[in-house]
Amino acid sequence: MIEFNLNVNHKQFSMPYQCPSCDYVGDSITSLKKHFRKRHSNNCDKCGFKGQNVIHHYMRLALEGYEDHLIFWFLSNGFRESENRLELKEKVIKLVKQKLFINAQHRNKLRVKKSKII
To answer: Judging by beta carbons within 10 Å of its beta carbon (0-12, 13-18, 19+), is residue 6 exposed, middle or buried?
Structure first.
């Protein structure tokens, strides 16, 4: 008789945020931020900028109105509390929910793809 591990399936049900730069899917915005800082901290996947001051690049373009760079800035920096940018924070929260949150229908497709691999 085959036994199934329900903990593995539970993890698949709780993965609602997808990285804007790669195929990574995280179970929370915090795990997505950690992934983004670890994997995408040296270059901008949107425009190809490379260097150590990529956060400054994100901030500069975000303040010019580029939504994708605003999301990258949020994921790489997290709008630290010392920065008084409440309007941008509210805007980026809406953008993250619109662009990075994976709805239930899309999650089911991801679950099917993962189960086919196994």
So the answer is: exposed
